[in-house]
Every structure is written in structure tokens, then in C-alpha cells.
Amino acid sequence: MTTKRGHSSPPASLSAPLTPIFVKNFFTFNSPYGLGLWCEKMRPHARIGQIYIKKSIATQQQPSLTWQFVPQDQAVIWTISNPTNTSLSTAIWRGVPNYAPTYFFGGAFNMVYLANGVPSCAPPQEFCLGILKNPDSLIGYPAFVFNLPPNTSYSIEEFGFTQQAAQNIQAELVILNPGPVKKYVVYYDPTLPSMYMLEIGMQVGYLPSPYSIITQMYLTPKFYPNTFNYWVLEDNILTKNPFMKALYTINLITAQIANALNTT
């Protein structure tokens, strides 16, 4: 079967790079790897590449996340399936021990993605950047959100994986509870854009810290660590001002010192 867009289901196995059926070219700059580029590995040698999104009829009985390594691309194809009769909002929580930290897909370099064409979830879209919030938490963090219609699946290709790293992936599909669309202010570690540009070897635009975004908030079903120490709050005069920025900086330094002490 096919979806309303007429896209057939992904093949059971892939022996060649995935041919894009629907391509999101968010970036327009050139690099040795082509157009529409990014990675989420936070690795010095991470290759970056296009995101490919395919819609197809899901075949499983329960919502699921699967992945497959594509050696030609040094990439992993993530496939999210929604075989239910209701729409689902989902996110991908993943990492690779001793290779990449564990965090929600899209959480590392969202300030770059948003400045280069990735849409926010206002209005909610099938692929967008939203704000996730743990139960009973006042502070959120950004991440990619995949809003899947009933009986569909998405396949997304993410570059920057070695074969050994792909074999050690630890990942979870997280079903989210959609919340309100509001204006949020996002405070982030100012070294993150530099880390991104170091990986790709070129300068790109990015939103400054703090930046404002109108998007949807999504509640997680349980606690997930705020890996990169974001502060995301409703945007108003009390939350976006020099005092709050100074307070965030102190909190960030304190968290980094605590993390360094825990890893020594």
C-alpha cells in the first residue's frame, strides 16, 4: 500500500544509499559532503548529510523505532512506525556509549537548525523542532518532534556513524503528550555552535543565546536528562533579561564543574 503522497513502503533491506523521495534541504551552503547538511554526533570526524523523510504504511502492531546502518553513507536510517489508528507525537532518545552522548535527536545543535530552515512545531508538522518537558518540571529543552498520522512511518537518514558505533546504538522511541503552542525563550551553552562548526569545518549561521521561538511544548512520559543543560521557559520580561542570562551562565558553569568531577 501507499500513503496519500504515493510513496511505497521502505525496502526490507538496503544495499545502496537510500534514494530520497521527500528531501528536506534545510541548509544551502556547499561542503565536501553536498547540500542540506548536518550531523548530531558531536564527533570530530562525524560526516554530515541530508535528512531524507519517507512516508509509508506502517506494518507493525505497536509504535516502534528501528534503525539500519548504511555503510556506503556511514549513516543510520531511523524508521519510526505508527501502525495505530490515532496520530502520535514522538521523539528519538538515543546515544552510543564511548562515541556520542545520549540525548533527544535534534537537541545538540537546534540553534543552527532553526537559523537554517528547520521549522518549529507552530503549527505542529510531521517533522519540526519542539520543546520537550519532563513531568513536574518548569524547565524544558529543544528536540526534533515527529508527528505521525495514523498508519504511517518515517525513515530519516542521519550521517556520522561508523559501523562499530551503529552496532552499539542504544535508542528508544518516546511517545509524547502534546501541550500548548507558546513563545519560549531558550538559553543554551554558547560553545555548542562552535562545536558544530568545528565538525563541519565551515561557518554557518545560528541563533544567539538566548533566542525566542514560538513552538509547541510536548510532555515526556517520564524523566529524561537535560543532557546539554538547556533552560527553556515561557518568554516574558521575567524570563528574558540580563539577570536571567547571568543566572543561567552561573548554573551552566556549576553543572559543567559537577560533571567534570563526576567523570574524573
Secondary-structure map:
Elements: E1 22-24, E2 51-56, E3 64-70, E4 75-82, E5 88-96, E6 100-104, H1 110-115, E7 127-133, E8 141-148, E9 152-159, H2 163-167, E10 170-187, H3 192-200, E11 211-219, E12 231-234, H4 242-263
Parallel strand pairs: 7-11
Antiparallel strand pairs: 1-2, 2-9, 3-4, 4-9, 5-6, 5-8, 5-10, 7-8, 10-11, 10-12
Describe this structure in words.
A 5-stranded antiparallel sheet has the order 1-2-9-4-3. The protein has helices at 110-115, 163-167, 192-200, 242-263, and strands spanning 22-24, 51-56, 64-70, 75-82, 88-96, 100-104, 127-133, 141-148, 152-159, 170-187, 211-219, 231-234. It has one domain (22-263). The chain contains 4 helices and 12 strands; from the N terminus they run E-E-E-E-E-E-H-E-E-E-H-E-H-E-E-H. Strand 5 (88-96) and strand 6 (100-104) form a beta hairpin. The longest helix is centred in the last third of the chain and has 22 residues, at 242-263. It is globular, with a radius of gyration of 18 Å. Mean pLDDT is 80; it is low at 1-50. The termini are far apart. With 264 residues, it is an alpha+beta fold.
Write down the overall geometry. globular
Beta strand %: 25-35%
How are the strands ordered across the major sheet?
A: 1-2-9-4-3
Main sheet: strands, sense, barrel: 5 strands, antiparallel
The gyration radius over C-alpha positions equals 18 Å
Nearest-integer average pLDDT: 80
Total count of helical runs of at least 4 residues: 4
Helical amount among residues, as a percent range?
10-25%
How many β-strand stretches? 12
The end-to-end span amounts to 54 Å
* Elements, N to C (H/E): EEEEEEHEEEHEHEEH
pLDDT below 50 for ≥5 consecutive residues: which ranges? 1-50
Number of domains: 1
